[in-house]
Design brief:
- This protein has about 170 residues and is mainly beta.
- The chain contains three helices and twelve strands, in the order αβββββαβαββββββ.
- The strands form three sheets. It has a seven-stranded antiparallel beta sheet with strand order 3-2-6-9-10-5-4.
């Protein structure tokens, strides 16, 4: 089979989003301290591993996000990997809310940012690098600590939340 010499048809934003929706992703909440009395956090499914040595992770945030400046200046942050039972938290941290952390059970660790109770995994990261890419900023963090817990992770696929189920081998 040979490649076509003609340029492909335009790939609009809706087609791009619909195609991406076929890729199931995990759901996380990224958190950092914005000031002495305030935290920022948002739902992200752009989380991914980058390197084992050193242990690097990647996530992205829209350039027009309200919390962008706080996260760009944060030297440490947490990545909370949500459990299947935490859909309400995923919604809460993905929409405007006066205080996203009010009533949320969390503890502080090395990164001095929320480690949310009930998650299936947590990473505490040190800022490594960031890069503007289109309408987002890519953040690379070095995972300094991490934990995992029992449970099924929350996933996002084709515009809906779901969970993981192992297939028979």
């Amino acid at each position: 089979m040979s490649a076509s010499a003609t340029a492909p048809q335009a790939f609009d934003a809706r087609q791009f989003r619909d195609t991406l929706a076929q890729f199931a992703t995990g759901v996380t909440i990224i958190c950092a301290r914005a000031s002495e009395r305030r935290f920022v956090g948002f739902t992200a499914n752009s989380f991914n591993s980058v390197s084992l040595d050193p242990p690097l992770i990647l996530w992205s945030l829209a350039r027009d996000a309200d919390c962008l400046s706080a996260l760009e200046s944060a030297q440490r942050y947490t990545v909370n990997v949500l459990a299947a039972e935490q859909v309400a938290l995923a919604h809460r941290f993905s929409r405007p809310h006066e205080d996203r952390f009010a009533g949320v059970d969390y503890r502080l660790g090395w990164a001095d940012a929320p480690l949310i109770a009930g998650c299936v995994a947590w990473f505490e990261c040190r800022h490594h690098s960031q890069q503007v890419a289109g309408d987002h900023v890519l953040f690379v963090g070095e995972a300094v600590t991490g934990e995992r817990a029992a449970g099924r992770g929350l996933v996002f696929h084709h515009g809906r939340f779901g969970t993981t189920v192992a297939l028979p081998e």
